[in-house]
Amino acid sequence: MHDHPDKKTTIKIDARKIFLVGNPNVGKSAIFGLLTGKYVTVSNYPGTTVEVTRGETAIHREKFLVVDTPGVNSLTPMSEDEKVTRDILLEESPEAVIHVIDTKNIKRSLFLTLQLTEMGVPLVIDLNMKDEASDRGIEIDEGALRDIFGTEVVSTIAVQKKGISSLKKAVPLHTVSKFSFSYDSDIEEYISKIGQLLPESCISRRSTAVMVLSGDKTLKEWLLKNLSPETINLIESMRDQAAAKYPTPLSYVISQQRLKVVDGIVDKVQTKTGLGERGVSRFLGDITMHPVWGLPFLMFVIYVLYEFVGVFGAGVLVDFFEEVIFGEYLNPWAEKIVMSFIPVQFLQELIIGPYGIITMALTYAIAIILPITATFFIAFSIMEDSGYLPRLAAMLNKLFQTMGLNGKAVLPMVLGLGCDTMATLTTRILDTKKERVIVTLLLALGVPCSAQIGVILGMFGKQPVGALLIWIFMLAIVILLVGFAASKLIPGQRTDFMLELPPIRTPQFSNVLIKTLSRIEWYLKEAVPLFILGTLILFTADKLKLIPLLQDAMSPIVVGILGLPPETASSFIMGFLRRDYGAAGLFALQEKGLLNTEQVVVSLVTITLFIPCIANLFMMIKERGMKTAMAIAAFVFPFAVLVGGVLHRALIWMNVFQ
């Protein structure tokens, strides 16, 4: 038997780094933001698609690099996110590891604490969300927890910016925890034997040996770099010998023994006062996930969205911006200035003509779209901060199982209501390639982005409520049927669903304001240039007499199949540049009285299902590869036309809006 590693291991020692580690949804990113401010960098961890966020902080006038690691449930990886966090700890030696804990769910977090103490990393424990724990009648004895682990323990309420100074003071006082616990004698025997064969790293040989015994296949690459094949074979043989002693998987045995230790710690540090959650918060938390009452609540949320975005945003605000701000002031001023100082007719038309940069691009982007998207951003931020979105995921978990997915897939789908491009990026949180491909397809097909849904709600605000319900019904049916078919055709398996549910809370005005303003800033930077580009394309096409040709070319589809006026062709073409630009064109046609209710429904169902915008297409290529992205686009376009055509004939046949 070897008693030393076969190859020399290089360890990165960097005392200027602080790692944030914790379960998903414990407020880790909020802590990161308060420590570092807004000057941060986000980049992929080498060799993966997982993003890691870094930023600087100053503690006692010394600068440190803070690394926000991906949220994990265990450091024995089951997903790429967990592998990245484990690899960071395995290969880098920081000044301190701040373990962010959800105080109200300390049992789940302590399972991770045991793994960190086993690794022997310099540790600071941060009990975050203390207010939410108190609301549930849960109190944690910080002194007892400090005595058990022998590390600094602080409490924070990140959303209220409380406790950050105490956290900064605790970092220089970090210690390697002296807490230790033992597994049963058989496991301890093989931990000792395997540990002797392992190379030195930034974590203890004991913790690496436990990973090996747990069947951690992701560790194989690291072992191959540092050990000879003979030693690896010997280690695997020992692991198989240990596993043979138990009727259940060794990973399960190890987890159960850890959980017993966690239960003992929880009994010593946690007390429940009996006050419980606030009644209203608990009631709302229960009803929003109820299999029966959850759906009426969802319908109520949609109705409020309809009134706030569709009626107030697209009606009151758009009328004010379009008719007063632009109609009475900006456009007349622009026309006077251009006509006075620019005598060239071509340039005049370029700026203030029917396809002018000011009269069309900026009028569409600012007067029509911005009020609608701003109201939607406000509503979406309130839903985020209230804790409703994770409950929506839990409520829809069974529904998503029919599509080979689980409730975790709801999160990128809901984020798609903000931006499909960024939602496609967040499909990385899903554990299997099959799940990522299915969700990417459904995002490209049937999830309207915030700017587009805002315009759509604005159009439906001027139509009977039944028109909106038909649109929602069609999208839901299409997503379910396509998702179900994709789950049968795309090979692979789905994973189990785990999601931490925050309590229902009152959104903070400052948080909603910051999120809304940042999204409006994003819209102005990203969308307005594309509106101008789209207008320039239309202007060029108009000058080259291409628009009538395009309308003629698309007439068999637009007029013959969909039953729409020829003018809608340009809206579908522009929808590829930006989904909301295409919807804005339909909005303008409706304002001119060129679309009746049946045509509004058909056109909006079709353009919602239409090919993804160019930015989303590029993101699909980046995340899923050229072949998969092109296959999705090739499917979506004819399928959208097919659904629109069938809907058109069904509405005419049933005489719904006559």
Verbal overview:
The protein is α/β, with parallel strands linked by helices. It folds into 2 domains: 1-275, P-loop containing nucleotide triphosphate hydrolases (Rossmann fold), CATH 3.40.50; 294-654, no CATH class. The protein is 63% helix and 9% strand. It is elongated and about 85 Å long.
Short descriptors:
single chain; 658 residues; alpha/beta; Rossmann fold; 2 domains; eight-stranded mixed β-sheet; two-stranded parallel sheet; 29 helices
So how many helices? 29
Radius of gyration: 29 Å
* Uncertain regions spanning at least 5 consecutive residues: 1-5, 7-14
- The N- to C-terminal Cα distance equals 86 Å
Count the E strands: 12
**Helical/strand content category:** alpha/beta
Spell out the blueprint of helices and strands:
Layout: E1 12-13, E2 17-22, H1 28-36, E3 40-44, E4 51-59, E5 62-68, H2 80-91, E6 92-93, E7 96-102, H3 106-119, E8 122-128, H4 130-135, E9 138-140, H5 142-149, E10 152-155, H6 164-170, E11 175-176, H7 185-197, H8 205-213, H9 220-226, H10 229-243, H11 250-269, E12 270-272, H12 279-287, H13 294-341, H14 345-352, H15 357-386, H16 388-395, H17 397-401, H18 410-415, H19 420-425, H20 433-446, H21 450-460, H22 465-489, H23 509-543, H24 546-561, H25 568-575, H26 579-591, H27 597-609, H28 614-624, H29 626-654
Parallel strand pairs: 1-6, 2-5, 2-7, 7-8, 8-10
Antiparallel strand pairs: 3-4, 4-5, 8-11, 9-12
